[in-house]
Amino acid sequence: MFKLPPLPYAYDALEPAVSEETMRLHHDKHHAKYFDTTNKLMQQEGIDLPALEDVVLLAKRDGKAKLFNNAAQAWNHTFFWTCMSPGRPQPSAELKSAIDQAFGGLEQLKAKFVEEGVGHFGSGWVWLSAAADGLRIDSTHDGDNLLSKKGVVPLITCDLWEHAYYVDYRNDRQGFIEAWFDALPNWDFASSQFLAARGQGQAWKHPAAETVKA
Q1: What is the rounded CA–CA span in Å between residue 208 and residue 102?
Q2: Contact, 181 vs 18, CB < 8 A?
Q3: Which has the closest alpha carbon to 71: 93, 97, 44, 42?
Q4: CB 9 within 8 A of CB 186
Q5: 8-33 confidence digits (pLDDT tens)
Q6: Could you give the 3-state DSSP secondary structure of residue 24?
Q7: Cα–Cα distance measured from residue 118 to residue 112, given in angstroms and rounded to the nearest whole number
Q8: What DSSP designation does 185 have?
Q9: pLDDT in tens, 30-73
Q10: Burial of 16 (0-12, 13-18, 19+ CB in 10 A)
């Protein structure tokens, strides 16, 4: 079964951009529920796969909508926590060069990223990713992500569901994404993901399922 991974930092580490209250609700309640439901559905359907990525892809391929939504959301949130950092690292020289080439600079990337997130209707995620033709910005609806897109490696993502920001920003999604982008992207992680997209090292994978002993 899959277990809820602990946060890679303290609950209050992302303040003031994201409050401790939001993090406790978001991680301990919302994220935990996705794992609980995923594990129950896998047990009901006799699915025993150790990689959450494989569960997401199988559910999408076979049209198992409830399993897909919960497994994908479990994956998305663990990735989301990982791609944030309280330390404000900067992009590596290689990633900065790619950002400059694709967007004209970090400020222009921010403008495009915020624009995509604000313009996305309903719940979902906004992503910066690396593909064969360079960096790109995508948004996905509800629990969907980029796992099924061949040759696309996510670098960072921001949660567009209201539970990610409503406590702190009410309905001001733009204010949330702007504050998030200014303070929280883990550019060290994004830089390692970028190298993986170029064939240097392995891209991030979700922690594997744990075997339940009889």
Answers
A1: 34
A2: no
A3: 42
A4: no
A5: 999 999 999 999 999 999 999 999 99
A6: helix
A7: 10
A8: B
A9: 999 999 999 999 999 999 999 999 999 999 999 999 999 999 99
A10: exposed
In the chain the domains, ranked by start, together with CATH numbers, are: 20-82 (1.10.287.990), 93-197 (3.55.40.20)
pLDDT at 115: 98
Mean pLDDT, the chain, rounded, equals: 96
Reported as a single tens digit per residue, the pLDDT across 167-178 is: 999 999 999 999
Phi/psi of residue 139, each to 5°? -130, 145
Has residue 214 got a pLDDT over 50? no
- Amino acid identity of residue 21, one-letter, is E
Helix, strand or coil, per DSSP, at residue 190: helix
Provide the token pair at 65.
Answer: 């909508």
* Radius of gyration for the chain, computed over Cα atoms and rounded to the nearest angstrom: 17
**β-strand partners of 137:** 128
Q: Which residues pair with 124 in a beta bridge?
A: 141
Q: What residue type is assigned to position 147 of the chain?
A: L
Are 173 and 31 in contact, with CB atoms under 8 Å apart? no
Half-sphere exposure of 161 (CA within 13 A, CB side): 16
- Residues 122 and 128: their CA atoms lie apart, in Å, by 19
- Spatial neighbors of 64 by CB under 8 A, at least 6 apart, are 41, 45, 58
Reading the block at residue 121, the tokens are 């209707």
Strands 124-131 and 134-141: antiparallel
What is the C-alpha separation between 131 and 159, in angstroms, rounded?
21
